[in-house]
Design brief:
Elements (H helix, E strand, L loop, with lengths): L1 H18 L3 H4 L5 H6 L15 H12 L1 H11 L7 H7 L11 H12 L3 H4 L2 E2 L5 E2 L3 E7 L5 E7 L3 H22 L3 H4 L1 H15 L2 H14 L6 E2 L12 E5 L4 E2 L3 H6 L4 H19 L2 E2 L7 E3 L9 E3 L5 E2 L3 H15 L3 H10 L9 H12 L12 H13 L7 H20 L5 H16 L2 H18 L3 H14 L1 H5 L2 H36 L1 H4 L2 H17 L6
Parallel strand pairs: 5-10
Antiparallel strand pairs: 1-3, 2-3, 3-4, 4-6, 7-9, 8-11, 9-10
């Protein structure tokens, strides 16, 4: 039923693909439905005969409409699934559409915020500053004189996205069934990611929360400014932000004319990336020059301005650690370490031989290191390493691909500002400093201190849990396999194990408590940590099983 309902729109998509010569890209002879209707569809445009496939796909998505443009932008971040030449072209897609009337924007604001615009704002400009497929932005002034911008979702955008996602899902199902490389492309996974991204962008309150957290991470920083959110004037469909002024980060002429040191600014951009990823674990994942501005009034201390917080990234703590260690090993050309880290992180199966992976990594990296470090792109090198690792059954999370895309954007901005920037020299000490602080003994002890109440709450139950586990083990398969003598021996071992667990838990808690008390020695005195440590050792000794003669 759905296929019949979507048939006219599917045929339109097929017609556009053929007009832009993308049936060659899809290999119509091997994709059943496309082969059947191909004689009825238009011929390819003659002027595109020499255009590369990425350019043709970009033009086709522009023809299909704004939601397909947004889908192409999302797809450009999945360089694990999309060839590099196509991803580069899709990254050039511009999400610009004609604005909707300012009177409609006014009506949406009033409906969402529950008051007339004249009461909410001192002034409101119905002519939008910018317009995109999801929302458009209007300028306004608060009653206290502060300038703000108001982001308003397009009317009916929910239904339009749901309709186009339905179409994309149908196309994904066709590709999953008929495309010869469906197992590598994973079209349904790609559609699901596009759907998730669009759903997130439909919730402007979520974007406001992202902006608020990023602002808190860089509060008072001379390097990055994040506009404040006006929460009293924001809702799921309306977001009011402090208005900021600047120029896009790639407007080199304006930045130079303002007298700003471009080399200093470029180095700051690289440092900001590593701080967001490895210090805060919360990074701007759509950091193209249109979303990263430069404040032209800050001449002695150049400052970036962040905009558009719909797409933000973060990593699981384990991936963050493994990735940081991989970067350090890459900076130090320790190929063996890179191979070992990939296996330890669980990014590839354990049966992969370390020496083979090390050789593959060396093969990729060595040609790069024949150049001056200032000419080596970390993003390009990381992308090549990921491609090589796929031959070794690499399993990579989408967050890491998003990170790779962000790194590519940041390097592009840095080299645009300073073509001679040595990204390695800037990044290496920043990352080492962050890791030294993040994984220092003092920070580990603070984390232990934070979790001690949780452990103390669970401690009294640990012997009972151990006993229950042993009883279940004995009552299950082990009861069938062991004779009565074995069960008696197992019962004895269980008693010794419970004793060891209890003694070990109490001992470990006392010793950890001693370390924490030692940190506060001036307040509690030096004798209390010593007593706690002695108590911990005694608990270990009492709990430790002794051999019977």
């Amino acid at each position: 039923m759905r296929s019949v309902r979507l048939l006219p729109r599917l045929l339109r998509v097929a017609a556009v693909l053929c007009r832009f010569r993308l049936d060659e890209l899809l290999d119509a002879r091997r994709i059943g439905p496309l082969a059947w209707v191909r004689p009825l569809l238009p011929r390819g445009r003659a002027d595109l005969r020499d255009a590369n496939r990425g350019e043709r796909l970009r033009l086709a998505l522009n023809e299909l409409g704004p939601i397909f443009v947004k889908a192409g932008q999302v797809l450009s971040t999945r360089r694990d699934l999309v060839p590099e030449d196509i991803a580069d072209e899709l990254a050039e897609l511009q999400d610009r559409v004609p604005p909707f009337p300012g009177s409609e924007a006014r009506a949406i604001i009033e409906a969402q915020l529950g008051a007339p615009v004249s009461e909410l704002y001192a002034s409101f400009d119905e002519t939008p500053l910018a317009s995109a497929s999801i929302a458009q932005v209007h300028a306004a002034t608060l009653h206290d004189g502060r300038e703000v911008v108001i982001k308003v979702l397009r009317p009916g955008i929910d239904k339009a996205i749901a309709r186009d996602i339905d179409l994309l899902r149908a196309l994904g199902e066709l590709a999953d069934r008929w495309h010869p490389n469906a197992d590598k492309i994973r079209p349904l996974e790609v559609v699901a990611e596009i759907e998730k991204t669009l759903e997130n962008e439909l919730d402007l309150q979520r974007e406001g929360a992202n902006a608020s957290l990023l602002r808190r991470n860089f509060e008072g920083s001379p390097d990055l400014y994040v506009p404040a959110v006006e929460w009293d004037l924001s809702h799921a469909r309306v977001l009011t932000l402090e208005r900021v002024h600047g120029v896009p980060a790639d407007d080199v002429e304006a930045i130079a004319a303002a007298g700003i040191d471009r080399k200093q600014l470029a180095a700051k951009g690289v440092r900001l990336f590593y701080e967001q990823v490895f210090r805060d674990n919360f990074f701007h994942a759509d950091a193209h020059p249109g979303n990263i501005w430069v404040d032209l009034t800050k001449i002695d201390e150049p400052q970036f301005i962040a905009l558009d917080f719909g797409i933000m990234g973060s990593l699981p703590e384990a991936d963050q650690y493994w990735l940081a260690e991989n970067f350090i090993a890459l900076f130090e050309r320790d190929y063996r370490r890179i191979a070992e880290l990939h296996l330890a992180a669980g990014w590839m199966p354990r049966h992969i031989r370390v020496d083979e992976l090390e050789g593959a990594v060396r093969t990729v990296c060595e040609p790069y290191f024949t150049r001056p470090l200032s000419q080596i792109s970390i993003a390009e090198l990381v992308a090549k390493l990921f491609q090589t690792a796929r031959r070794f059954e690499l399993t990579l999370q989408p967050q890491l691909i998003l990170l790779q895309k962000t790194l590519l954007n940041i390097e592009g901005v840095g080299r645009r500002l300073d073509p001679d920037i040595d990204i390695w020299a800037v990044a290496h000490p920043v990352l080492k400093r962050i890791l030294r602080k993040r994984y220092s003994p003092r920070r580990a002890l603070r984390e232990v201190r934070r979790r001690i109440p949780e452990w103390m709450h669970a401690a009294p139950r640990m012997p009972d849990l151990a006993r229950e586990w042993l009883q279940q083990a004995v009552a299950g398969e082990l009861q069938v396999r062991f004779a009565s003598d074995d069960l008696a021996r197992l019962h004895t071992e269980a008693r010794r194990t419970r004793r060891l667990l209890a003694g070990g838990l109490v001992g470990a808690t006392l010793i950890l408590g001693a370390l924490l008390l030692w940190l506060d020695a001036p307040q509690v005195g030096h004798w209390l940590p010593v007593l706690a440590a002695i108590g911990g050792v005694v608990a270990f000794v009492i709990g430790w099983p002794r051999q019977r003669r």
